[in-house]
Design goal:
single chain, alpha+beta, eight-stranded antiparallel beta sheet, four-stranded antiparallel beta sheet, 2 helices, 14 strands, 30% strand
């Protein structure tokens, strides 16, 4: 019966009883490097983000449509002298509200003269400011008398100009509605929940001087995503190589063959 065509499967390599890692040595090394690099990028991105950014929840609609009530934003920690016209900032001021953070847009800094409105637009130092992030592109209906902002202070408005309790609601205060630069906790870079992305750059203020650049949040997100992909891809190499290697590693031969 030894001549019959009965067959059996046999592994291609007959040596050794130990289990050898799937895939080539080069592939194993590259997958290990990918996982190690991915961990560094992933954790490094999170650490960088935690160092530079703080999360805040915006409680009111005064910054609508840029930021809606209940939106979660990321604010970059910045020094007081880094704050520029057009920035959306998070600050505290007991003259405005006690024990709570406020989110508004800086429209004038120390030394500026601000007023409204000319041709339906806010004016700073006599220049009309284009503000495309406002509803309908019109600054507001209410009048802002001419205010000279003291050095070291900021004049702030909400993007929802008609309903925002901003500097215009505090014009009779001793500081004429202005807030100290040192009161700023962070500069808002992005709306992350629900995801709306990076805030629009306030280019209308560029005619008055430099505006702030976007923070490194986009770079941080890329590092985190690339790191996750490398970890998952490198970790999957072994199982994938074993799966396909197992399929190629069997052959048939006659049952009686030796």
């Amino acid at each position: 019966m030894g001549g019959e065509s009965a067959t059996r499967t046999a592994p291609r390599s007959g040596g050794g009883t130990g289990t050898r890692p799937a895939g080539s040595r080069t592939g194993q090394r590259l997958s290990g490097l990918a996982v190690a690099l991915g961990i560094v990028l992933f954790l490094g991105g999170f650490a960088w983000g935690a160092l530079l950014y703080r999360p805040f929840t915006v409680p009111t609609s005064s910054m609508s449509p840029t930021i809606a009530a209940g939106d979660r934003v990321l604010g970059q920690r910045v020094d007081a002298d880094e704050i520029r016209r057009g920035d959306v900032v998070v600050f505290t001021d007991k003259e405005w509200v006690t024990g709570a953070l406020v989110v508004k847009r800086v429209v004038a800094v120390g030394g500026d003269t601000v007023a409204c409105c000319t041709n339906g637009k806010l004016t700073v130092n006599g220049k009309e400011i284009d503000e495309p992030y406002l509803k309908g592109g019109v600054a507001e209906d209410k009048t802002i008398p001419t205010v000279k902002v003291p050095e070291g202070r900021l004049f702030l408005l909400g993007d929802e100009r008609q309903g925002s309790l901003d500097s215009t609601a505090h014009l009779t205060d001793a500081a004429q509605g202005t807030v100290a630069r040192s009161a700023v906790e962070a500069r808002v870079d992005a709306v992350v929940w629900p995801w709306k992305g990076m805030l629009e750059r306030p280019t209308g203020f560029g005619k008055l001087g430099a505006i702030s650049e976007q923070g490194p949040l986009s770079t941080i997100l890329v590092l985190i995503v690339v790191g996750a992909v490398l970890v998952l891809g490198g970790g999957a190499y072994g199982p994938v190589a074993k799966l396909f290697g197992g399929r190629r590693g069997v052959r048939t031969e006659p049952a009686g063959a030796r």
